[in-house]
Amino acid sequence: MNVLIYENEEQIGIAAGNYMCGQVLAKPNSVLGLATGSTPLKPYGHMIKLYENGAVDFSKVTTFNLDEYCRLDVNDVNSYHRFMHDNLFDHINIPEENINFLDGNAENLEAECAEYERKIKAAGGIDIQLLGIGSNGHIAFNEPSESFQRWTHVVQLKESTIKDNSRFFKSIDEVPTQAVTMGIGSIMQAKRILIIALGENKAKAIKQLIDGNVTPQCPASVLQFHTDVTLMLDKGAASLID
Ligand code: PGA
User: Fold this and answer.
1) In ligand 1, which atom is closest to the CA atom of 40?
2) Against a cut of 0.90, is the pTM above it?
3) Which of 13, 87, 123, 205 has its CA 20 to 30 A from that of 199?
4) pLDDT tens digits for 16-55?
5) Cβ contacts of residue 125 below 8 Å, gap of 6+?
6) Whose CA is nearest to atom 2 of ligand 1?
7) 67 labelled catalytic
8) Is 138 a catalytic site residue?
């Protein structure tokens, strides 16, 4: 794995934004796998800056987002659709029809998940997948469990996740209890993977991802089997690496 350690979040934002845009410069019709959460905010900000400076063109890019809540209006401030539009898509020239999200409001969620896998394949697969990581080693909504969930699927959110995420909602009762997420196999099929982690609360998960046992108890550990993974870490997230 290519492990890069930076002084602070600002520097990671620039490096990760450059990395994503470098992919687009090398292949203008790249397929980007994108993530939500607080970690990608600065990288998205830098991608917007590069676009505004005329350094990169997103008009031929296709995107797939990792996950989405179920039964939440797409315009809700907590929906990942809304997050991506507010923090990236509304500020760059990606055509709306090239943006792909899982529809958490689909009547038949299983069919929606299968269709998403089909769409990723039809687009030629993901060229680069941007990932955050949970302090428990989760990637997307793939939480620690007894086995790796391979493809895009529906998940029942754990009490702990609902509690963690309730800080963004008016009350805990408003937090969705289900989500749809790309699976471990879907993520592993991306040609390149960029993981960003900020802060000491991610250090244990990063240590396990780099040299711990590969186990579904730490879903990110499976990335040891991927041949093109880059980690961008701040000093806190890198603090347990030898
Ligand atoms: P965060 O979430 O970027 O808000 O820390 C990352 C994740 O849980 O995947």
Assistant:
1) 3
2) yes
3) 87
4) 999 999 999 999 999 999 999 999 999 999 999 999 999 9
5) 31, 189, 190, 191
6) 37
7) yes
8) yes
